[in-house]
Specification:
Keywords: Signal. With 184 residues, the protein is mainly α. Helix content is 52%, strand content 12%. The protein is built from seven helices and five strands. The strands form two sheets. The protein has a three-stranded antiparallel β-sheet. A two-stranded antiparallel ribbon has the order 1-2.
């Protein structure tokens, strides 16, 4: 019980530290890509709160996963590190969460947003697997896919909205992708 309370306290501290971090952005070139449907990224904590995953520990990690996704969408490496650190702590509390924790640690250690995004693909794949095993109590989650991510190999991510906000290209190609599956 004490370990669980310590973990919750640490997760809370990481979130509080996020508010104190400065924005760090990097510029990327995506020549030859269609940027015609760009739109500003938005964070929606109300949507995050409306989804409840059956596994409480995974539900806590989900909150930080959305934070990480938003940070990458906003091209913010520093905020991505904060969110990934919280995921790492939470994933260590989940049965079968070691791979998720390892990927989160790699994002935390990375200084380059492209490296963070590459590792995010692995992290997302593992998160989707855990999410499908656990199931959702309430709300809907969307598995979105960007066919151009990872040098046109494609990659998925979990979203709490049908609206595409691409974490693999961020603000340079915000709406690239589509919803491929809904988890209810």
């Amino acid at each position: 019980m004490k370990t669980g309370m310590k973990s919750i306290f640490l997760l809370g501290m990481v979130v509080l530290m996020a508010a104190c971090n400065s924005n760090q952005k990097t510029e990327d070139s995506h020549e030859g890509h269609d940027h015609s449907q760009e739109a500003p990224a938005a964070v929606s904590s109300a949507l995050t709160a409306s989804v409840k995953i059956k596994d409480d520990k995974l539900n806590a990690v989900y909150q930080h996963y959305i934070h990480l996704t938003t940070a990458l969408t906003n091209d913010n490496t520093a905020e991505a590190k904060v969110a990934a650190s919280a995921i790492e702590i939470g994933a260590k509390q989940i049965d079968g969460g070691a791979t998720l924790a390892k990927a989160a640690a790699e994002i935390t250690e990375s200084k380059d947003i492209e490296a963070q995004r590459t590792t995010y693909a692995s992290l997302s794949s593992e998160f989707i697997s855990l999410l499908k095993k656990a199931g959702v109590d309430s709300g809907e989650l969307y598995i979105s896919h960007c066919p151009m991510a990872l040098n046109d190999k494609g990659a998925d991510w979990v979203s709490n909205s049908k609206e595409i906000r691409n974490p693999y290209f961020g603000e340079s190609m915000l709406t690239c992708g589509s919803v491929k599956e809904t988890i209810k």
